[in-house]
Amino acid sequence: DTAVSQTPKYLVTQMGNDKSIKCEQNLGHDTMYWYKQDSKKFLKIMFSYNNKELIINETVPNRFSPKSPDKAHLNLHINSLELGDSAVYFCASSQDTGLYTDTQYFGPGTRLTVL
Amino acid sequence: AQKVTQAQTEISVVEKEDVTLDCVYETRDTTYYLFWYKQPPSGELVFLIRRNSFDEQNEISGRYSWNFQKSTSSFNFTITASQVVDSAVYFCACHSNTGKLIFGQGTTLQVKP
Lengths: 115, 113
Description:
Number of strands of chain B: 12
Mean pLDDT of chain A: 92
Shape of chain A: globular
Strand content of chain A: over 45%
Largest interface: A-B, 27 and 25 residues
Distance between the termini of chain A: 34 Å
Largest sheet of chain A: 7 strands, mixed
Shape of chain B: globular
Number of strands of chain A: 11
Oligomer: heterodimer
Radius of gyration of chain B: 14 Å
Helix content of chain A: under 10%
């Protein structure tokens, strides 16, 4: 059984296009996250949602818009893609951010390449 | 602000050698959690361990062991009798009181046959 899944796994697109990445978790967790891993492998949080409510919003260009239709899904929509957006994007989930104890479980990642 | 430092960028060992991956963290929180994740060449991030700030007992899981020392703000990871399948990027991370998981830069471990 897949715990945290993302689609697509690979995404190649032209500069200026709009694209979405979907994430679903079947762990029954309340909190979901998006992370960006750059070419140097550095991982940084972008957004976090708890029960469909935005709770973490890092300094991310407003071309990036997360959407959580329900607590099992957190999608990432990116407008007007730029070369610098090329990265691996990871979705993650945890039981509840408020307890500090929660392990975050990651999806397989989506490799976005902007040409 | 929290910070996690993994000073070793790359480590190369020969199979069956023991290897220790260093992790030093900075935090002002009195309650915090430390993690290690493994990222194999296939790219996924695999959770390995979580340790809370009040529990300084070392932990052993098969060939893996972790040494948490609050006095030196370190949470080191040792692989005993390394195997080729251990080749991966290993990340240390600290969970902040804002809910963010702060990652170190990662250590690339190459285990040669």
